[in-house]
Design brief:
The complex is a heterodimer. By secondary structure, chain A is an alpha/beta fold. Chain A has one domain: Transcription Regulator spoIIAA. Chain A has four helices and five strands; from the N terminus they run E-E-H-E-H-E-H-E-H. By secondary structure, chain B is of the alpha+beta class. Chain B folds into three domains: about 90 residues, Rna Polymerase Sigma Factor, Chain: A (Orthogonal Bundle), CATH 1.10.1740; about 120 residues, no CATH class; about 130 residues, Heat Shock Protein 90 (2-Layer Sandwich). Chain B has 16 helices and five strands. In chain B, helix 5 packs across helix 8. Chain B is elongated. In chain B, about 30% of the residues are buried. Classes of the chains: A alpha/beta, B alpha+beta. Chains A and B meet through helix 1, helix 2 and helix 3 of A and helix 13, helix 14 and helix 16 of B.
């Protein structure tokens, strides 16, 4: 099913993982992305995750749900998630559709996202995570 | 030969002189190419040339002239034969010989056509054959039956549509499983959209496997419209291609970026319902000109259907692990939204976005 160029790249910067979605993803690809990302959080002992969805032209109910699920799983694994790069049209559509990102914090772009994580990280130097 | 009068003039020779040369010419030619099938032709050729030149040949020189001519004619035969040999390879037919199965296929097609023709009723068949095979034009046919040329042409079109269906059934050796199959296939074959709606053709194709297969060539015939797209949906990847295609088509109107996203998202939602609950179905995206410019999306499946449509449209209801916002959300996104569902016979969602109606643009 896959084998072409990477659909998502996950990079590590310090204790933060930066996941950039490069193209529209179908449902199975979204689910695979979810698994990959959660695996990597454990592998790199990440404290923060930034998901850049600027390349997603459509965030429908399933995509929104998956992003929320990723954030919740990351939280359980001791990492804080920030969604960045939601396009204005996409934001409008999500509101009309009745989908939001729930409690997942968002930021305008990558830079703002990193700043948000740094700010929150300073308030919680060591998250209370028995597994970490 | 019109020049025969000239043979008698003082300078030249007469036809009799030429006739006297015949045995000699024949001897010369036969000595060289006696066994050649065209030897006698060459003799005649030589005599013709000598005869036409006879009046201008000096007295006493006719015999040598005939001898030279005979030699020339023979050598030009050889030259021709030689040229043919040298160029033979250029004439080789490089196209592959007909494969033996072609004949079989041809015979099958013929017998299918014969069966199909036999299934038409006598009057239809007569009219079609008169028109197509004998070349009788529609005016003549109309005069014969006391109708108009237009009516005859319409009748011929209906007959052709039936013939296409019967031919397909015959060549595929399919017996239509239900009573609805024939009317549906004929409606598709004729490309009559009103009739297709009457017999609920699209719905039937989702339920009837043989018809879905047979309708393929019939639908391809009619796929000339470029403002209408039909996308089969049966997997995750199809959801993405369907919403992409809808967005693509919508860009032809003057929708803004927000509306394009709204349309793509709505298509994505209804396609997901098809994949989740019905397994497979189709989406038809069509640009509308009347009553206003807009885009209409019809998503159709032959799945289990929705028992309680009103509840499905209420926020918070869901039969899968989502947020229960699928259909009501889509209804909020689009300008028109209608859903028809019959338990056991699938669901059809029809939704429309009109051009330039969005009052809530974010920018």
């Amino acid at each position: 099913m896959n084998g072409g160029p990477a659909l998502v790249s996950i990079m590590r910067q310090g204790s933060t993982l930066i996941a950039s979605v490069h193209t529209a993803l179908n449902d199975s690809e979204l689910v695979r992305f979810e698994h990959d990302l959660v695996d990597q959080i454990g592998e790199h002992r990440s404290r923060g995750v930034i998901i850049d969805v600027a390349a997603l032209d459509v965030i429908d109910s399933f995509a929104a749900l998956t992003l929320r699920r990723i954030a919740e799983m990351a939280r359980l694994r001791g990492a804080q998630t920030v969604l960045v790069g939601i396009q204005p049209e996409v934001a409008f559509t999500m509101v009309r559709l009745g989908m939001g990102t729930g409690a997942v914090p968002t930021a305008l772009d990558l830079e703002e996202g990193l700043a948000l994580l740094a700010e929150q990280g300073s308030h919680h130097p060591r998250p209370d995570d028995p597994e970490a | 030969m019109s020049a025969s009068e000239r043979f008698g003039d003082s300078l030249g020779h007469t036809a009799e002189d030429v006739a006297d040369l015949i045995p000699m010419v024949r001897r010369i030619v036969y000595a060289r190419v006696g066994s050649h099938p065209s030897a006698e032709d060459l003799v005649q050729e030589t005599l013709t040339r000598v005869l036409s030149a006879a009046s201008t040949v000096e007295p006493g020189m006719l015999e040598p002239y005939a001898i030279v001519t005979a030699r020339n004619v023979v050598s030009s035969l050889w030259r021709d034969a030689d040229r043919k040999n040298r160029n033979q390879h250029r004439l080789v037919d490089l196209s592959a010989p007909e494969p033996p199965e072609k004949q079989v296929v041809l015979e099958e097609e013929q017998s299918a056509m014969a069966t199909a023709l036999a299934r038409l009723d006598e009057r239809e068949r007569r009219a079609l054959l008169d028109h197509e095979v004998d070349g009788t034009d529609t005016h003549a046919l109309a005069a014969r039956h006391g109708t108009t040329a237009g009516a005859v042409a319409a009748q011929l079109n209906r007959t052709r549509a039936r013939l296409r269906v019967e031919y397909l059934l015959a060549i595929e050796h399919v017996d239509p499983p239900t009573d609805r199959c024939r009317p549906v296939l004929i409606a598709l074959s004729s490309g009559d959209q009103r009739r297709q709606r009457e017999v609920q053709a699209a719905q039937h194709l989702l339920e009837c496997e043989p018809c879905a297969r047979l309708s393929q060539p019939l639908l391809e015939r009619g796929q000339q419209r470029d403002d209408c797209l039909r996308i089969p949906v049966s997997s995750d990847a199809d959801i993405v291609s369907a919403r992409r295609a809808a967005r693509e088509l919508a860009t032809r109107l003057t929708f803004g970026a927000t509306d394009l996203t709204v349309i793509a998202t709505a298509v994505s939602e209804v396609c997901r319902n098809i994949v989740r609950f019905a397994g497979s179905g189709e989406v038809v995206v069509e640009l509308l000109e009347a009553p206003r410019r807009g885009i209409q999306i019809v998503a159709r499946d032959g799945g289990p259907g929705i028992t309680d449509v009103d509840r499905a449209l209420g926020d918070g209801f869901s039969t899968y692990g989502g947020l229960g916002l699928g259909l009501p959300g889509v209804r909020r996104l689009m300008d028109e939204f209608a859903i028809a569902s019959e338990p056991g016979h699938g669901t059809t969602v029809t939704m429309t976005k009109w051009e330039g109606t969005d009052r809530e643009r974010p920018t």
